[in-house]
Amino acid sequence: MNQLAERLSRISEPQTIKMAKLGRELKAQGIDIVDLSIGEPDFDTPVHIREAAKQAIDEGYTHYTPVAGYADVRQAVVYKLKRDNGLAYTPEQIVVSTGAKQSLANVVLSIINPGDEVIIPTPYWVTYSEQVKLCQGKVVFVPCSIENNYKITPEQLEAAITPKTRLFMFSSPCNPTGSVYSKAELEALAAVFARHLQIFIISDEIYEYINYVGKHESIAQFGDLINRTVIINGLSKGFAMTGWRLGYVAAPLELAKACDKIQSQFTSATCSITQRAAITALTGDLAPAQEMVTEFKRRRQYIHEALKSIPGLKVNDPEGAFYMFPDVSAFFNKTLHGTHIGNADDLCMYLLHKAHVSVVTGVAFGQPNCIRLSYATNMATLEKGVERLREYLK
Ligand code: PLP
Questions:
Q1: In 3D, which of 280, 303, 312 has the Cα closest to residue 380?
Q2: pLDDT value of position 214
Q3: Averaged over 363-382, what is the pLDDT?
Q4: Ligand 1, closest atom to CA 247?
């Protein structure tokens, strides 16, 4: 296929999507797969949001919309940022996109020139590095340890910064680790950024509501960092709306305009009907979203205890999102039920084909000693998955 552009060789397909595909294939063969590779809530979108979408269709919201979103949708995002985060934005600083993934792409395309350095603490969400590489940026990974619950320290951050550093990208709550940065931890990182004015910060807050330790904190609140921080958020996780495709940025004005310009040549605006429903989601009753989080919390409690009781798994302590990210290196170079396990990839394939449990290798997230398990599935499935893990990790 030497007709294809060179840039394709720089990036790879997400392992998360690959595992989901493999799991589906085995299911189609009639195999009972316990899917713990899922990156989306297993709940349905709350009824009042669905109703708003139906009404939008009936009211004729079926045409092109402004590229950055309807004015009242951008206003709804402004309202949400004030209500939940105490942050003051204007609608011109908001760009609504076809999912947070596109929001991220718009920002990276707007900021990164070839050779620019982008600091990404690992473990990290798969897409960050690939978008940077597409722009010929240089990814600078900073490995974070399980001892610090996979969070970057101010010292590590300072040491990674060079005159070429242009961007820092992270998520809190984090995919894949579930780690949540506290206010004090963010403030300490903000103090480092205050010394390096050339750096933009992408603060991916898509799991904002799925937080078990209390109030969500954004790094944009410290000093004048709001002028260099891009908040990424969306409806996918907090409102169980992955298929609707709506994400947004809240950014410094010039950057928001740049995202608008890029989006105008790639996709135009996201779906008009989704946008109308978004107003209801962002400004309406949060109780259904909170009920979902209560259920996630119950499952987290269960799976955390269960995994801790399986010998060989070194389990982290997630405070948000819906993932566990245990260290599985104790199984490397061992033979389990006749299969040699060399690394986390081997373990995932072994678990898929022998235990019929689908999980994702930590290699995909820059931490090759780990695997990611999602608990965005019902309790009965989780219990079945845990029993199979217990049996096949013996
Ligand atoms: N950011 C993180 C950390 C995610 O885990 C995901 C989805 O898995 C996204 C962004 C993208 O979300 P969206 O569905 O809005 O594109």
A1: 303
A2: 84
A3: 95
A4: 15
Predicted confidence (pLDDT) per residue in 204-241, tens digit: 999 999 999 988 999 999 999 999 999 999 999 999 99
Ligand 1 atom closest to residue 40's alpha carbon, by position in its atom list:
8
> What residue has token string 């790879």?
12
Check pocket membership of 123 for ligand 1, CB cut-off 6 A: no
Q: How many residues does the chain have?
A: 394
Separation of 126 CA from ligand 1 center, angstroms?
10
Cα(104) to ligand 1 centroid in Å equals 9
Supply the residue whose CA is at minimum distance from atom 8 of ligand 1: 39
Instruction: Indicate the class that CATH gives domain 6-44+288-392.
Output: alpha beta
Considering the entire predicted model, what is its pTM?
A: 0.96
Domain residue ranges in the chain: 6-44+288-392, 50-283
Mutation pick for ligand 1 pocket among 16, 97, 127 (CB with most ligand atoms within 8 Å) = 127
Q: Specify the amino acid at residue 239.
A: F
pLDDT bracket for residue 1 (50, 70, 90): low
8 Å CB contact between 194 and 188: no
| Ligand 1 binding pocket mutation candidate from 171, 205, 206, 267 (most atoms within 8 A of CB) | 206
CATH 3.40.640.10 is held by the domain 50-283: yes
- CB contact at 8 A, 229 and 205: no
Cα distances (angstroms) measured from residue 219 to each of 125, 323, 332: 18, 22, 38
Decide whether 6-44+288-392 matches 50-283 in CATH topology: no
| Predicted confidence band of residue 18 (pLDDT cuts 50, 70, 90) | confident
Check pocket membership of 100 for ligand 1, CB cut-off 6 A: yes
